User: What shape does this take?
Amino acid sequence: MSETKLFQLEQNESYALIEWNSNQLVQENYEELEAVIRNLFKKEYTNIILNAAQVNEIDGYGVSAIRKGTKICTNENGLLVVVNKKDEIVTRLDAANIDGLTLMNTVQEGIDAIYLNDLENDFGSEENDDEFSGEEFSDYSDDY
Assistant: This one.
């Protein structure tokens, strides 16, 4: 009996894509997801797409793994995008109220969301760099 891998991993410079090969994300396999997300974070990936399109069963352990992954990514201004369009899964994840969770119907929508998030982060940091209040030089007013 051959054992199939629970996931396949693709990585590029902008994001990592986890292709979840199981139709379940439950107590028996959630640790695999947590481990791959931790390893990607160690490699400085803050944008991760979890293609869970095959998943039709998720329990509290699976939800918890997604919650942890979302927190890891959003703490670094990244995104964890979960791809699944099955009503039962979407409803379960919505009910979990995971702060910062991004749910999409397709991997391409997830890629677009990541690029848009990166643009927003870049634009936001440029706005902060361009702001000048004059306070930086207020201590030098006595010099003149």
